[in-house]
Structure formats: C-alpha cells, structure tokens
Write a structure and sequence with these properties.
Layout: H1 3-11, E1 14-15, H2 34-53, H3 59-65, H4 71-74, H5 76-99, H6 101-120, H7 125-153, H8 159-185, H9 191-194, H10 196-210, E2 213-214, H11 225-248, H12 253-275, H13 289-319, H14 324-331, H15 333-342, H16 345-352, H17 355-375, H18 382-405, H19 416-441, H20 447-470
Antiparallel strand pairs: 1-2
Helix pairs in contact: 2-7, 2-8, 2-10, 5-6, 5-7, 5-11, 5-19, 6-7, 6-10, 7-19, 8-14, 8-15, 8-16, 8-18, 11-12, 11-19, 13-14, 13-17, 13-18, 13-19, 13-20, 15-18, 17-18, 17-20, 19-20
C-alpha cells in the first residue's frame, strides 16, 4: 500500500465515540448497521434541508402574528437562515473532520432542535429571526457531516448508491417544502418549527446509539483560521447583498459596498487556498473536472430551482388567489415525482454515469419554464397549465441533484465532508440569487413579472446543462 493510500485509509477509519461502549468493528464490507445509519443520517439531512424551503408559504401568517412589521422585516425569517447556512457550511465541515463527525452532527441536531422550539415559541419577530439564524448554524453542522459519516459506513462499491439516496433526500426536501408548509400553516405557522422538536429528539437518541465516530488522525493540520474567516465573510456578505439588492436597489451605495467587500473577502479566501498549509477549502478539491462541473452546475441549477419553488407558490396565491393550503397541495406532484426519480438515482448513475441524468434534469427544469411561459395565464388553469410543468420540475429535482451531489464521491474519502459542504454552499448561494432575482422581477406579482422570472429559470437550466457538458471528463474512467 502506498503512503498516500495508507494515510487515506487511516483518515477514514471510524473511531468509536464514547456513547457506544462496544461498537461493532467496521470492516471493508462496511458497518454492520449501515442501513440503520443511513436511515438516521437521511432523516436528519431531510429535516435540516426541508426547513430552508418550508417557510416560504408561511410568511403571510408570520406577518399577521406580528403587527406593524413590513414585508421586508418578515423576509428576514428566510434571509437570516439562508445567509448563515451558506456561510457556516464549509467551516463546519472542516471542523467536523478534526473534532469528530459524529460529535459535530449530534451537536448540530441538538442545536437545531432547541432553536426550532425557540422559533415556535417566539414572542416577537426579532426573537424568531435570531432563532432562525442559530437554527441555520445547526443545519450547517448536520448536512455535510451526514455525508461524511455515510462513506466509511458503506463499502466503496456501494458509494454511488448511498450518495444517490442521500442526495435524493435533499431533492425531495426541496420539492416537499411548499406543500408541507402549506399543510402545517393551516394549523398555525408555529407548527412549521414545532414539528422539528420530536423528530430532532428521536434522531438525536438514534444517532447517539448507532453512529460511529469518524475523524482525521491525531496530528492532522488544523484548518487555517484566516481562510475560514475570509470564506465566512465572503459568503455572508455576498448572500446579504443579494438578498438586500432588490429592496435597496442594485446601484445603491450599500449594495455596491457589500458586493465589493464580498469580492475582497473572496480574493483573500483564494489567496489562502493557494498559499496556506491547511486552508478551509483545499485546492485539491477542484483538481478534478467532475467536482468543478458539479459546483458550477449546482449554483446555476439552484438559482433556477429557487425561482420554481417560490414562483409557483406565489403565482397560485397572488394571481390565481389560491389559499396557502390549496397552493401547497397543488405543488405536491413535484415532490412526488422527485421521489420516484430520486429513489432510482443510484441505479441511474451506475447505468448512465453522472452527467447524462444531471443534464436531463437541468434541461427538464428549463422545459418546465418554457411550458409555463406558453400556457400559464391570469385565468386559472391548473391541470392544463401548471400541472405538467410541476411534473417536469419533479423530474428535474429527482434527476439532477443526486448526481451533482454525488460528485463529492470523486474526492478522496477524507475530503468527503468538505466537498459536500462546498457543494451545499454553492446550492445555497444559488438559491439566494434565485430568490433575489424573483423578488426583483415580480414587485407587483403580475403575470409579466412571473414570465420574466420563468425566462431566467429557463436560462439557468440551459446554463447548468452547458456547464456540465463543457466541464465533463474527457474520458470516463
């Protein structure tokens, strides 16, 4: 065995944590409880990612609960989560590799559960926004770490399957957010957060009993704090500027200053990536074309997909005057279709590779936008207008996201957590850009504004497919 291979084997060997006193020995065949581990990790990843999308349909109800608060103030319930989640993902992933992935994940679940309870009981909008920001920290500790724990629990021949299933969970969470939110908000918007508490407690107990500990070997270099701080500033400032741009104006001095500061912080991050001994984002991540292609494509696809998720709910409520419940139920075909395709993500990747399903999914999102541009008008026509496009959206979510996130599997095992965090960060920044574009294009919630947004959605899907085809490996190994 070469020195590099030996170091990788050591780096991904699970270390038994203090909770399981007599944990089973992990062999090359994987952990003996690997499918139970998969269930726990899938559940916590679903919970953390669902909460980003589920709040969209609850903003009106939240605004009514806190009188004298404008739309701009209430929107921070979404924005605070988006900014913090995107900014903390990569530093949390790198810290998890040193501190222990199991310990990081369980701490994240505990924080997410406590802050969900705080959000449900929030007496004021300020408390709710603060709870959402802390909730995002917990989610950022969960999402990349869950994939980092999956890899050593399964044999290498199963990695394509399990990463496909894990990424499919994220696709389903994204698509299921609006309908789940629509159902819960009929009771009270606080149920959107309260429902996380029993789920969080159950997964915390199951995780403490089942999950092995995985960390880098002692003596491994600690992530460079300067690059971690620079990345944190770059991402948070970029997302903050993107979120505030539609309200402040894109040429407003505050918006321009934020983008300039984000650019400076990004330049500092790149400089530390190239020069630091252990930067928070290692340059080796982008040595392979598949990971680079997936990072770029996820940003573009997520921008379009965020427009899909928010525009469909808003259009049916603002233009067709559907109730939140009816709009949520009407969107349900999209996650159902996503489930059907996401469940077959592993076999599809094994048969066709990562590029073909991902390109098909991104183009399906573009086709959905083109269809809505041609058929959706002021007069309600759900079955002939909105429904066929939602099926295409479900196909897009189920086919595209799984192979894009599976690109983390092309990295060395000890970089799986960081790679997953980078991919999730790319998705979150893309989602923030998509929401900002939708807000900027639909200030009056007119059909013309939604047509412009769907045009951008189509362009994002085509651009994502182009990036995948352009950056695909020259030769399939």
């Amino acid at each position: 065995m070469s020195t590099q291979a030996a170091s990788q084997a050591v780096a991904t060997t699970p270390h038994t944590g203090p909770a399981p006193a007599a944990a089973p020995v992990v062999t090359e065949a994987g952990h003996p409880r690997r499918w139970s581990i998969m269930a726990v990790l899938g559940a916590v990843a679903f919970m953390a990612q669902l909460d980003f999308f589920v709040v969209n349909v609850a903003l009106d109800g939240i605004g009514r609960s806190f009188p004298n608060t404008g739309v701009a103030s209430v929107s921070w319930v979404l924005s605070a989560y988006a900014i913090v989640f995107a900014a903390v993902l990569v530093p949390a992933g790198r810290i998890a590799d040193h501190w222990g992935r199991r310990k990081m994940l369980l701490s994240g679940v505990a924080l997410f559960t406590l802050t969900s309870a705080a959000a449900a009981a929030a007496p004021s909008l300020g408390v709710l926004v603060g709870a959402r920001a802390l909730q995002a920290v917990g989610a950022a500790m969960i999402v990349p770490t869950s994939l980092g724990l999956l890899y050593p629990s399964f044999p290498k021949r199963r990695h394509t399957l399990v990463v496909g299933l894990w990424a499919g969970v994220g696709a389903i969470a994204a698509s299921a957010g609006p309908p789940v939110g629509g159902l819960l908000v009929t009771l009270d918007w606080r149920w959107i957060f309260l429902i996380n508490v029993p789920v969080g407690i159950a997964t915390l107990v199951a995780g403490a009993l089942l999950l092995p500990e995985v960390r880098q070997p002692k003596g491994a270099a600690v992530p460079d704090p300067v690059s971690a701080l620079a990345l944190l500033l770059a991402v948070s400032l970029l997302v903050f500027a993107t979120v505030q741009g539609p309200g402040w104006g894109w040429t407003d001095i505050r918006t321009v200053a934020l983008f300039a500061a984000a650019a400076l912080a990004a330049a500092a991050t790149v400089e530390r990536t190239l020069r630091a001994k252990a930067p928070v984002i290692e340059k080796q991540l982008f040595a392979g074309r598949p990971f680079t292609a997936a990072t770029v494509a996820l940003f573009l696809f997520s921008a379009g997909f965020a427009i899909v998720l928010l525009s469909t709910a808003l259009f049916m409520q603002e233009v067709w005057h559907f109730s939140p419940l009816r709009a949520g139920v009407s969107i349900a075909p999209a996650p159902l279709a996503s489930i059907a395709f996401a469940m077959n993500a592993g076999p599809l990747q094994s048969r066709f590779g990562r590029t073909a399903p991902a390109v098909t999914g991104t183009l399906a999102m573009a086709l959905a936008a083109v269809y809505w541009l041609a058929t959706v008008h002021t007069t309600p026509d759900y079955w002939g207008g909105m429904f066929p496009g939602l099926i295409l959206v479900g196909l897009a979510g189920g086919l595209a996201q799984a192979p894009l996130f599976a690109a983390a599997g092309t990295l060395a095992p000890e970089r799986a957590t960081t790679g997953s965090a980078v991919l999730n960060m790319s998705r979150q920044i893309g989602s923030a850009v998509g929401v900002a574009l939708l807000v900027a294009l639909t200030p009056q919630a007119t059909t013309t504004g939604f047509d412009h947004a769907w045009s951008v959605q189509a362009g994002a899907g085509i651009a994502a497919a182009t990036a995948l085809l352009t950056l695909r490996p020259r030769r399939t190994p």
